[in-house]
Design a protein that fits this description.
It is built from five helices and five strands, in the order H-H-H-H-E-E-E-E-H-E. The chain has about 150 residues and is an alpha+beta fold.
Length: about 150
């Protein structure tokens, strides 16, 4: 994704396109959908020669997630949050399938599915406030489970 496209996306969600925001979003974009932690992002920014601090990375991630540009998930193996760019309709709720074995994630930007899951969760006392829903799965091609051919 070009910097011009990143600037347009930031402006579309009412965030000023700062160098830090553009740099963080660029790293997430080049990760190809692989979820990255704040530490991973910071390390990659340093490797690229970008000048920022870890606090700026955390603040940028929080602002972009709050604006609906990013999806955050909890990585049990690393015991930290990981982020990736929301595909499709930025700003809308999404369902994220996360493989327990290989940590691959699959985004489902399906409003009807999200609404159904939100209704079921609310019936069971779970508060949902336009957040992404993460469902843990085991994918068929997972090498850790032995399904791969």
């Amino acid at each position: 994704m070009s910097d011009d496209k990143l600037i347009q996306l930031l402006r579309a969600v009412k965030l000023r396109p700062t160098i830090s925001r553009i740099s963080v979003m660029r790293v997430l974009d080049t990760a190809g959908g692989e979820p990255l932690s704040a530490d991973d992002l910071f390390r990659r920014l340093m490797e690229q020669g970008e000048r920022c601090n870890i606090g700026t990375v955390y603040r940028t991630l929080q602002q972009c997630e709050g604006a609906g540009m990013l999806l955050r998930a909890w990585d049990d193996a690393q015991r930290r949050s990981v982020y990736r760019i929301r595909q499709g309709d930025a700003g809308g709720p999404a369902v994220c399938l996360l493989c327990r074995g290989c940590d691959r994630s699959f985004a489902l930007d399906d409003a009807l599915l999200y609404e159904h899951l939100a209704r079921v969760m609310q019936q069971h006392g779970v508060r949902v406030a336009d957040q992404a829903v993460q469902i843990e799965i085991t994918c068929a091609a997972c090498p850790r489970i032995g399904y791969a051919s």
